[in-house]
Amino acid sequence: MSFTPSILIVEDEPSIGEVVALYLQKAGYHTISHTNGAQALQWLSEQQRDASLPDLIILDIMLPGVDGYEILRWVRDHSDTPVIFITARREEAERIIGLDLGADDYVIKPFSPQELVSRSRAVLRRAIRSENKTEKAIVFGELSIDPTLRLVTRNGQEVLLTSREFDLLWLLVQHPRQVFSREQLLDKVWGITEYIDPGTVTVHLRRLREKIEHNASEPTHLVTVWGVGYKFEP
Ligand code: CA
After folding, report:
1. Could you report the per-residue pLDDT of 75-91, keeping only the tens digit for each?
2. pTM value?
3. pLDDT tens track for 6-58
4. Which helix (H) or strand (E) holds 10?
């Protein structure tokens, strides 16, 4: 989760959902919004299939159709993505059920958007810590990439990477053989696509190749898929 964290907001009241999204975006997060429980669930199962679930879910309990509990249950069955739920003040039982189902935190309506941002930040921080604790180094032949130490070694020799180069490499090695377009890499590693020239990715890839490949002009790990993008070949 070293790139811009993404947050799914599921809230059927547009006035609340929009304000929450705005505050989270201002705080530097990437947001995805759904106002319908069934659509949110559908979207989540697609993300799950692509191994790209959001880093945090903000979930209203009272939704028409598929409610927040059902979504929370699904999330807990499929991932450890943190969840903050939104509940109405009068429903104490809601809070207990939500926490019992494995939510990480909650806010009570009406809540201040700034408070929700603070709670989101805290939950994400905890998630990063526990993720880093369990994330092991990935080893491909002579190459070892350790996400906790953010350390790359080749034949036991440390390879000095910039923070961005590391994030880019880490994303690619976590999804071996999956092809990413330059726009996807910008989105996931840089967190923004509007203001950055996709050529930036090309430049970073070239530097990474010079650092980790035997022959940067004939790369065996960081492979170009012509007309599509890049992939990591183990
Ligand atoms: Ca609602």
Report:
1. 988 888 999 999 987 77
2. 0.58
3. 999 999 999 999 999 999 999 999 999 999 999 999 999 999 888 889 999 99
4. strand 6-10
Calculate how far, in angstroms, residue 26's C-alpha sits from the geometric centre of ligand 1: 23
Overall number of domains in the chain:
2
Given 85, 106, 130, the domain boundary residue is 130
Q: Which range (56-60, 123-127, 200-204, 219-223) has the least confidence?
A: 123-127
Residue 1 lies in a domain: no
Q: Calculate how far, in angstroms, residue 107's C-alpha sits from the geometric centre of ligand 1.
A: 13
Could you tell me which of 91, 77, 35 has the C-alpha nearest to residue 59? 35
> And the tokens for 46?
């697609």
* 11 lies in the same domain as 111: yes
User: Ligand 1 centre and the CA of 87: distance in Å?
Assistant: 8
Q: What is the whole-number distance in angstroms between the Cα of residue 12 and the centre of ligand 1? A: 5
Distance between Cα 53 and ligand 1 center (Å): 23
Domain end call among 103, 130, 157: 130
Domain with residue 17: its CATH number is 3.40.50.2300
Specify whether 121 is located in the same domain as 157. no
pLDDT tens for 104-118 read 888 999 999 999 999
Q: 70: domain range?
A: 6-130
Distance 40 CA to ligand 1 centre (A): 14
Residues in the chain: 234
Q: Give the whole-angstrom CA distance, residue 225 versus residue 81.
A: 31
Q: Which two tokens stand for residue 176?
A: 């071996």
User: Quick one: 196 and 212 in the same domain?
Assistant: yes
* 101 and 22 within one domain: yes
Closest CA to 14 of 63, 49, 66: 63
